[in-house]
Design the sequence.
């Protein structure tokens, strides 16, 4: 329906808000995409500009994914327990992630989708989101690779949904697998660097992030 199309369009625009690029340009006069990993995301903002910029970028990017899914409450007439509602929410979240990766407001060069994906999972399944967050943190703390944590946490999501939370809705699972594959695609350069031992490390409990 027109209503759903409008919601999907808004979700894309929401995802497209290039938080890392705008915060970098407005408050620091730089484009974070010209430094570090060249990515317009939370990790690279922490890496280049520190936590004062990184934390707001993370919160806003997570919020974008959450809000995109929340649009389903305003733009659909299906009951929130229905499969149709769940599928609509999934589509909204995926579109927001695509917007984050290919933002219309920043020349289609955005981030890798992780923070926005996390926001979406938060909206869809709180417990799964918390589990993914713990998995991410454990990997980050032990390996110091954000990218590795992001990829493993993304893959854990569909696995947890099936085996831990016994979610029956097939599109939830299918979506989870598709997004995990999308995450592998956006992390191609990270994978190459990880294999060569050249990925930059991030220390959660140290001041200097390299
Ligand atoms: O936030 C995305 C993360 O998984 C990797 O970011 O900047 O290290 O390529 P980056």
Sequence:
């Amino acid at each position: 329906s027109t209503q759903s199309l409008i919601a999907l369009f808004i979700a894309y625009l929401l995802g497209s808000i290039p938080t890392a690029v705008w915060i970098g340009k407005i408050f620091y006069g730089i484009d974070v995409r010209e430094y570090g990993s060249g990515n317009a995301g939370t990790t690279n903002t922490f890496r280049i500009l520190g936590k004062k910029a990184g934390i707001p970028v993370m919160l806003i990017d997570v919020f974008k994914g959450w809000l995109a899914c929340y649009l389903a409450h305003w733009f659909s007439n299906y009951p929130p327990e229905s499969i149709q509602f769940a599928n609509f929410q999934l589509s909204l979240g995926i579109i927001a992630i695509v917007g984050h990766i290919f933002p219309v407001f920043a020349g289609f060069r955005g981030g890798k989708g992780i923070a926005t994906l996390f926001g979406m999972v938060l909206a869809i399944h709180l417990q799964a989101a918390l589990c993914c967050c713990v998995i991410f943190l454990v990997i980050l703390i032990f390996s110091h690779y954000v990218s590795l944590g992001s990829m493993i946490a993304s893959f854990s999501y569909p696995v947890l949904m099936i085996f831990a939370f016994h979610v029956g809705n097939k599109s939830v699972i299918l979506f989870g697998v598709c997004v995990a594959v999308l995450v592998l695609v956006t992390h191609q350069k990270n994978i190459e660097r990880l294999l060569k031992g050249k990925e930059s490390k991030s220390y959660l409990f140290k001041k200097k992030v390299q």
